[in-house]
Write a structure and sequence with these properties.
The chain contains 14 helices and 17 strands. Bound molecules: pyridoxal-5'-phosphate.
């Protein structure tokens, strides 16, 4: 058997695992709450939650219990049959969004893929198929996913691209209007761009796109894979962004994709379709073997129950506001290192200054170097692009853990100033 050591596990990867990821030099072994441990027993504060996935932290007893109890009853039966957990989870999601229906799958890319197929069906008889997506967006790594994603780095080497996608600048309503062609059938955006560097849509953009899509008979689709599931303090980021904005509470997209925190680490994805379009994908048009298994749905239901019971949306909102104010303080105190604080709730970005002298010696993006230094300080965070470091903590992060995280971040910032 493999020795439980860093070097032996690294060698297993070097020999046997496709090297498609640029991984950090950490070999993780177990966790509890927002703490995770490497194989040498060193403790890290996890302010990344995987990548916005482990929304209840690690080894949460409610998730363990849901896995154990449901697996004793039924793990999988296929979608040839009905099961209670899938029906109940769909009802919970519909109740949190609005009149419509839900399709279950296994990942974010696959959820978006379902939305692309919805668009093809929607526009089919009129010969419309084109989907406009935003520059700096991220929608997953499948072939259609990289065509939809507005970042060249994910497309390079995989041409020819799947056709039917064009990119428009984010938060620019007039650009969206100008980009429409007779083939356009939909617009897809993230409520808060995550991989692109934590950029929220403006309320005017969301309401403007809704009006534009109504006017031109287009589907307005939103990718809530990263920014959804209460990370912003509301179930979906658009609900938070439009809170208190005139006309905002009536806003709904026509389709919405979910994954990441939906399963808290157990793989599950989903898309919701608003009522007038909810039956477009009729019997036989779409499917996936593992979609909405009783096990995955039981876990997702339990997570929603815990979030509601423990008021974790409020936690993300208030503790997130505190974290953001602390990053703003760092930006004021150390402007040569921290440029600004981005985002909301538990979807935050530390924007690093352009030229940090201490980073000049190593040929790696500042965000990566900063994340590495935070690893040395015992904190896990997630880079986005070259200059943004994301904080995507578990929704049940404790206040003293937030304080511990800021202290470690401040120490690293200070060492670079
Ligand atoms: C992570 C992510 C995806 C892709 O999800 P996978 O589960 O990795 O396929 C899609 N959209 C957004 C916004 C994401 O952050």
């Amino acid at each position: 058997m493999v020795h439980n050591s860093h070097q032996a596990i690294r060698e297993l990867f070097d020999k046997n695992v496709v090297p498609s990821y640029g991984r950090f030099e950490l070999v993780l072994s177990h966790g509890a709450g927002s703490q995770v441990y490497d194989v040498a027993g060193r403790r890290y504060l996890d302010l990344g939650s995987g990548i916005a996935v482990s929304c209840l932290g690690h080894a949460h007893p409610a998730i363990t219990d849901a896995l154990v109890e449901q697996s004793k009853k039924l793990i999988h039966v296929s979608n040839l049959y009905f099961t209670e957990p899938q029906g109940r989870l769909a009802a919970e999601l519909v109740q949190r969004l609005g009149d419509g229906k839900v399709f279950f799958c296994n990942s974010g890319a696959e959820a978006n893929e379902g939305l692309y197929k919805l668009v093809r069906k929607f526009g089919h008889d009129e010969g419309r198929f084109e989907i406009l997506t935003a520059t700096h967006s991220f929608h997953g790594r499948t072939l259609a996913g990289i065509a939809a994603t507005g970042q060249d780095k994910v497309k390079k080497g995989f041409e020819p691209a799947v056709s039917g996608f064009r990119h428009i600048p984010f938060n620019d309503l007039e650009a969206a209007r100008r980009a429409l062609s007779p083939s356009t059938a939909a617009i897809l955006i993230e409520g808060v761009q995550g991989e692109g560097g934590v950029t929220p849509a403006t309320p005017e953009y969301l309401l403007g796109l809704r009006a534009l899509c109504d006017e031109k008979n287009l589907l307005l689709l939103m990718d809530g894979v990263q920014c959804g599931h209460y990370r912003t303090g509301r179930f979906q980021s658009f609900q938070k962004i439009l809170e208190g904005v005139p006309g905002g509470e009536q806003f709904l997209p026509d389709g919405l994709s979910m994954a990441k925190s939906l399963g808290g680490g157990f793989p599950i994805g989903a898309f919701w379709v608003r009522t007038p379009y909810a039956d477009l994908l009729g019997a036989g048009t779409h499917g996936t073997t593992y979609g909405g298994t009783p096990l995955a749905c039981a876990v997702a239901l339990k997570i929603l129950e815990v979030i509601d019971r423990e008021k974790l949306a409020d936690r993300a909102l208030t503790l997130g506001a505190w974290l953001k104010s602390e990053i703003e303080r760092l930006a004021r105190t150390y402007p040569a290192v921290v440029k600004s604080a981005r985002g909301m709730g538990f979807l935050l970005g530390i924007e690093l200054a352009d030229d940090i002298p201490a980073f000049a010696a190593i040929d790696k993006p500042p965000a990566i170097q900063f994340v590495n230094r935070l690893h040395a300080a015992g904190v896990l965070t997630i880079p986005a692009g070259t200059h943004i470091v994301r904080l995507l903590p578990p929704l049940n992060l404790q206040p003293q853990e937030a304080g511990e995280g800021i202290s470690a971040i401040e120490a690293v910032v200070k060492s670079l100033a």
